């Protein structure tokens, strides 16, 4: 399976709801002491082979590193090396277009390497250097966030994490505490304390300076919208043009954001099931009132016994849910979801669901994992406070079951495990807060009506908070810019190249 280069992740731990109690008054952004940032020398550009291996499709690509302090409060202390890729503009250069694919935890270096071939002969490739830097701890940057060995991650995925009895909750929380300990052992407490979005936004400005540009142009997907909003808040005068696609609303607390996201996945599941039902052999049948029940009949037995696959691992319950969620990100994956569910129904081979789960979790055919899920967990855990009250998690489970019944195992017990972030070994460095506009006409937000991972209303809210133009895309997928929709892409190009605002209330239909 070919991994998508746009990313918006749920938790690696069975898509557990990201919930928190009310956080009280939202913090205001502290004035940024820009002079204190370590603006150093530009990177030494060279071959990308060290990051990417063979890059024959990108003969002009250049790669290098930018050095940043691990702790901005101690700029002379230990340093991190940020991996950077640049594909130079082929025509009259406007500047660099920085791209972040989201996650958090996805590699921007890999993303630019993947998408650049399709953009070099367009107005984007002619007018902009295409640039990606891997955030601290992520991808090709060093040090890496690493929590688990390959064997430990495989073992984690075999855990159903579905029993919400008192003993089951205690077991799940013990699994999460072990993950937290592994992250300290594999990454180090000091580095874990400094991997949040607030530090990465400062890193982005150091990269901007290293590129020699006074202002940035930016395209952020999914979590990349949160990074872009943080940058705009800290360095608004240094933003020329910013496109935020698949919006995460930084002002939303994890309770409402988690339930809203689960509802988005239910909507996408319903769309998938309706399309599947057009075929007489759909494993969910043809009755819309039974889609969820038929799905649960197929996956619930996996809590007790893995499903059949040609891979000796079999299909665990956690992998079935993860694989389903991955398929809902794009209609291109729906056929693999159908074939996997048919394998469960017939008792033959549900391997396509396992492949979908492997793709989501970053496991390659050799059994080696990227660090994207470890990075996802570490970054989100320091980006917001998480509650420790059992009652909060029980209520979150109740609301989540109502929002996404296709993900709900068994009956509501009145108990639920705390999220791993509630037991994280370092304190949060951010909290939900209102975002500020970097200035009129600088930001465009793109939001998809049936986006599962970053639901449409989050984009509406973010556009309002930033005073930004909003492009609405009618479809069922996660993010859309430069994925082939002429309406969205033409409006995006006009904005990035010529600073032309999209028509008011622009709606693009799939």
What spatial form do the alpha-carbon principal axes imply? globular
Structural class: alpha/beta
Looking across the biggest beta sheet, what order are the strands in? Answer: 2-3-6-4-7-8-9-10-11
Compute the separation of the termini in Å.
24 Å
Which regions are unreliable across 5 or more consecutive residues at pLDDT < 50? 1-35
Number of domains: 2
CATH superfamily grouping of the largest domain: Alpha/Beta hydrolase fold, catalytic domain
Q: How many strand segments?
A: 11
Could you tell me the strand content as a percent range?
5-15%
CATH topology of the largest domain: Rossmann fold
Count of helix runs: 17
* Rg on CA atoms, Å: 22 Å
**Average pLDDT metric:** 91
Based on the structure given, which CATH architecture of the largest domain is correct? Answer: 3-Layer(aba) Sandwich
List the helices and strands in order.
Answer: EHEEEEHHEHHHHEHEHHHHHHHEHEHE
Highest-level CATH class of the largest domain: Alpha Beta
């Amino acid at each position: 399976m070919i991994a998508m280069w746009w990313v918006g992740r749920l938790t690696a731990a069975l898509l557990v709801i990201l919930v928190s109690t009310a956080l009280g008054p939202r913090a205001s952004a502290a004035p940024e002491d820009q002079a204190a940032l370590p603006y150093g020398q530009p990177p030494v550009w060279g071959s990308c082979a060290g990051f990417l291996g063979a890059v024959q499709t990108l003969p002009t690509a250049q790669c290098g590193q930018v050095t940043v302090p691990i702790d901005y409060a101690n700029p002379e202390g230990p340093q991190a090396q940020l991996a950077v890729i640049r594909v130079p503009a082929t025509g009259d250069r406007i500047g660099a277009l920085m791209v972040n694919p989201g996650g958090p935890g996805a590699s921007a270096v890999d993303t630019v390497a993947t998408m650049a071939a399709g953009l070099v002969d367009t107005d984007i490739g002619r007018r902009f250097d295409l640039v990606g830097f891997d955030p601290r701890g992520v991808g090709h940057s060093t040090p890496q966030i690493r929590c688990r060995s390959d064997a430990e991650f495989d073992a984690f995925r075999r855990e159903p994490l579905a029993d919400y009895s008192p003993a089951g909750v205690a077991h799940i929380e013990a699994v999460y505490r072990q993950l937290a300990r592994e992250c300290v052992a594999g990454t180090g407490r000091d580095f874990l304390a400094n991997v949040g979005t607030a530090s990465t936004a400062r890193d982005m400005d150091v990269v901007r300076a290293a590129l020699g540009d006074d202002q940035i142009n930016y395209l952020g997907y999914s979590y990349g919208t949160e990074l872009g909003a943080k940058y705009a808040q800290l360095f608004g005068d240094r933003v020329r043009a910013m496109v935020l696609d698949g919006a995460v609303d930084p002002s939303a607390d994890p309770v409402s954001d988690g339930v809203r996201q689960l509802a988005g996945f239910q909507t996408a599941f319903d769309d998938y099931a309706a399309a599947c039902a057009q075929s007489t052999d759909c494993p969910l049948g043809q009755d819309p009132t039974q889609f969820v029940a038929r799905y649960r009949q197929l996956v619930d037995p996996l809590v007790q016994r893995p499903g059949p696959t040609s891979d000796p691992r079999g299909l665990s319950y956690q992998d079935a849910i993860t694989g389903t969620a991955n398929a809902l990100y794009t209609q291109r994956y729906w056929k693999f979801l159908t074939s996997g569910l048919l394998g469960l129904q017939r008792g033959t081979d549900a391997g396509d669901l396992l492949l979908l789960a492997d793709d989501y979790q970053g496991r390659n055919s050799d059994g080696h994992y990227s660090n994207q899920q470890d990075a996802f967990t570490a970054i989100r855990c320091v980006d917001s406070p998480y509650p420790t009250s059992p009652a909060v998690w029980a209520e979150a489970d109740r609301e989540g079951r109502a929002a996404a019944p296709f993900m709900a195992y068994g009956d509501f017990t009145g108990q639920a495990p705390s999220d791993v972030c509630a037991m994280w070994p370092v304190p949060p460095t951010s909290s939900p807060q209102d975002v500020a506009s970097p200035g009129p006409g600088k930001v465009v937000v793109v939001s998809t009506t049936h986006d599962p991972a970053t639901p449409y209303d989050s984009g509406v809210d973010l556009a309002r908070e930033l005073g930004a133009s909003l492009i609405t895309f009618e479809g069922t997928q996660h993010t859309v810019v430069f994925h082939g929709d002429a309406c969205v892409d033409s409006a995006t190009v006009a904005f990035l190249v010529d600073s032309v605002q999209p028509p008011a209330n622009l709606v693009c239909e799939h």
